[in-house]
Amino acid sequence: MGHYVARRLLQSILVIFGVTIIAFSVIFLTGDPTYLLLGEGGGLTEEQVAEFRHQMGFDRPWIVQYADYMLGVIQGDLGKSYYHGVPNLELIIEFMPATIQLAMTALLLSLFVGIPIGILAATYRGRLVDHLSMIGALIGQAMPVFWLGLLLILIFSVKLRWFPVSGKGNWNQLVLPVITLASYSIAMVARIVRSSMLEVLAQDFVRTARSKGLSEWVVLYKHALKNSMIPVITLVGIQIGFMLGGSVITETIFAWPGMGRLIVQAINTKDVPLIQASVIVLALIFVGVNLLVDLSYAYLDPRIRLSDKD
Q: Measured between alpha carbons, how far is 198 from 102 in angstroms, rounded to an integer?
């Protein structure tokens, strides 16, 4: 078990290291970042441009700049926003709770809806319930997020006036963004649960449990469901990262004050330090969640612990 944890920690560190290199290097892809930040000089003289380049440290070797940047990141200094004029960490702490609220609510909705649908589809394989569930899952995966969000606004906000169009505050302002963000995940969870359950239900230990006279409920939920959860947990880890980092469209459509809108604003204003800081923080969260998912495998599947001893 110890070797398994050590390997996963090392892999996570390497991934984070790679993300920091990519995030830091983006600003240099177009050449001299000085002109990117100043807008081709911004009417400044060459002496003023050179002074700005020196103040930003762009006249130093790239590896030196990266080392200084990483030293600050390790100490909790993610730089300062050009547009807002405040430390990036303060902005991220301010906007991140809204994104976490939206993402976690959408994740819970996808699990509470997707898992039962997948179980029903597997239990009644080949019947009407199975066909309807998989058709609904296919539609959920096929609908673009921006189209679904606009459709929900048109129907439930403009026509029926049940929910607000945008903003954050009351619970009813959370409903439409959560449904929009969770629609794809519900479909994914339902299909993965169905596939995994069908595989487990065909195993010998399930037939043995049924031959002992156990009720179908006990067979499904005590024996089959737990053993089919590893693919689901893997998907959940991926979906958490997707919802935290990929909610840009949803937050933009519903004017949700989260990290997605903050990143879009940073891109529009060429606020490179804020973009870099946001990418690194989201990568840390994504890697951390997936590390927890990997470690949970050892609990759900004892074969992982046994193979680690070999």
A: 32
Q: Are 185 and 114 in contact (CB under 8 A)?
A: yes
| pLDDT score of 310 | 47
pLDDT value of position 147 = 86
How many helices (H) and strands (E) would you count in the chain?
16, 0
* Amino acid at the residue 22: I
Alpha-carbon dihedral sign for residues 98, 291, 25, 49: positive
Of 196, 182, 187, nearest to 125 (Cα)? 196
DSSP state of 301: -
Q: How far apart are CA 261 and CA 98, in angstroms?
A: 11
Q: Where are the beta strands (DSSP E) in the chain?
A: none
**Domain boundaries 98-265+296-309, CATH class:** mainly alpha
Stated pTM of the model: 0.77
Question: Domain residues of the chain, as ranges?
Answer: 98-265+296-309
Residues of the chain with pLDDT under 70: 1-2, 4, 29-33, 35-44, 214-216, 222-223, 245-246, 297-310
